[in-house]
Amino acid sequence: MAKILGIGNAVLDIIHTVPHYPHEDEEIRAFKKSITSGGNVNNSLYVLNQLGHNTAICSTVAADSEAKLLLADLKKRNISTAYVQKFIQGCTPSSSVTLNAQSGHRSIVHYRDLPEVTFDYFAKIEIEEYDWLHFEGRNLGNLPGMLNIAKTFLTNQPISLEVEKPRDGIEAMIPLANLVIFSHHYAQAKGFNDGHALLSEIQKITTHSNLVCTWGDQGVWYASPNGEVHHILAEAVNPVVDTLGAGDTFNAGLIHSLIEGHSLTESVNRANKLAAQKCRQYGLDNLMEVKHADKPLANIKQLSNAKTLTVNSGTRSVILIKHGDSVKAYLNNCPHQNVPLNEAYKIDVNPFEKTMKCSVHDAFFNIEDGLCIEGPCWNEALETIDIHIDDKGNIFLGS
User: Fold this and answer.
1) Homologous superfamily (CATH) for 298-397
2) Contact (Cβ atoms closer than 8 angstroms) between residue 320 and residue 305
3) pTM higher than 0.85, yes or no?
4) Are 134 and 160 in contact (CB under 8 A)?
């Protein structure tokens, strides 16, 4: 287990899942809403936690009510907030995310009215206590000083830098990092058509950095210091459930594998598989659970349209029920007070209304989509669990 410090953005994500992406002037109803912490570094640290590491974030929050939600979720993710700088003026950053259920892709509107971490604040952190520092390539007013401090005071600890967007002066930061991860957004903004062209050009300004460029479904390009540029294809994902945080998951998987001592080639391949696994599920929770486990959750013959079957999968309780010829699977957690639906007694099913009722405070949920249509958590929804059914009717986790 390594101690990892991430320096970058932490935001509050408001995610609406919609049946299709809305057209201009169209009104559309989201069938799922969630509020969680987000931001590149935050998401990567959460995945690194799940991979067994001890993580802390250096970021900023405001003094508003949203900050309380953000900090509470960071605590829930087991990310230390000891180095979160607070500002009285400004608003906690937020992102409005529209997730297209048809394709799993998302559109994001960011809002930020808050200063970045100051150089003086970062300089007080005892960075020598950490085994790895991961920087988000932003905050160019203070980032050069931060990286120079890290290079001065750290001996063997690697430094990674994520370059997601073009920013004035970011290229000068590249030689200061041991690992630099570029997005295809940055590459395209700089006029490159693939990762090979980008990394070949970047090699002219750094001779000792591992370089990686991710390009969505086109795969990943990577190069060791002074080495050839290599390419691997993206792992096929069908269907794509949710791409939000896939790049952050890749970054975490890459850092984790390098910490374990694997080569850059092996680490890129492992990170590629982990990012694909993320695209097969909603959100980042329980990312390490094995998909398509040897032991099925149940068999479709055990299910009916008139009652639920509750099964355990790792640390999660899962509700299974038939809906017509299909099978619906939901996390056994009522969004009202985060208690199992069968906490007091069994889950009542009305096969005519096609609803399930929570046993605690009588919230009624559609079997079809998990939406609460009556009760204290009206218009919230149960969390969908991705399942796969083989030709024998066995039900497994995963798509």
Assistant:
1) Rieske [2Fe-2S] iron-sulphur domain (2.102.10.10)
2) no
3) no
4) yes
